[in-house]
Design brief:
With about 210 residues, the protein is of the alpha+beta class. It contains 8 helices and 5 strands, in the order αααβββααββααα. Strand 2 and strand 3 form a beta hairpin. The radius of gyration is 20 Å and the shape is globular.
């Protein structure tokens, strides 16, 4: 993972150049309160708010950033709208309760002390060396396979942290008669369904590639 985590001087300059060119924005008061709740260090000033579009899973959600000057450098916070889990929709559950922080701060994680949820906005710190890792097209297959395995263990740890869920999963696996490729086939079916939904969304004219 080190090649994907380490940031060169060029990468750091590129990161801040992209931030500097984000368009100014005037976020709602709820967003400003959410950013303030994340706790800029004492003495931070010259706060600039901007809008940002990033990622694929959060397209369409309001997303704002706040950049501030502090001790001769800059610090960066992002506020992104928190929406109910699609699991609730799929199971006709009208609950708006989010387990986002439960998962992020669970015993299977190393919690980020700057991560907050305030007025239905997720607030997190970001920097050139504190960001989502994006695998490039040239990521080698061996490392990718190791990473997928590590991700599988991480997901397993999330479920294992819930005692009731852990026992329910083990009972299901013990009773069910599935072939060796059942998980792969299920993942492929889900991927096909997601792609079909996205293609339908594009045909409606809501997004262009």
């Amino acid at each position: 993972m080190r090649p994907y985590v380490a940031v060169t001087d060029h990468g750091r300059d590129k990161f801040w150049n992209e931030i500097d060119h984000l368009p100014d924005a005037t976020p709602p008061d709820a967003v400003k309160k959410a950013v303030e709740s994340a706790g800029f260090p004492e003495g931070a000033g010259d706060i600039r708010y901007a809008s940002r579009v990033a990622g694929g899973g959060s397209l369409g959600r309001p997303r704002y950033v706040a950049i501030a000057e502090w001790n001769g450098g800059r610090i960066f916070r992002e506020a992104k709208a928190l929406v109910p889990s699609a699991w609730n929709w799929a199971h006709n559950n009208s609950s708006t309760h989010s387990r986002f922080l439960d998962l992020a701060n669970g015993r299977h994680r190393s919690p980020d002390p700057f991560l907050r949820v305030h007025d239905n906005f997720i607030v997190r710190r970001m920097a050139a060396d504190a960001r989502k890792i994006n695998l490039r097209d040239d990521a080698d297959a061996v490392n990718s396979a190791r990473m997928v395995t590590a991700m599988g263990f991480d997901l397993g740890a999330i479920h294992a942290a819930d005692e009731r869920g852990r026992h329910a999963i083990r009972r299901d696996l013990d009773k069910a008669r599935r072939g060796d490729d059942w998980l792969y086939e299920a993942a492929r079916d889900v991927a096909d369904a997601v792609n079909a939904d996205y293609d339908e969304w594009r045909r409606d004219g809501r997004v262009k590639r």
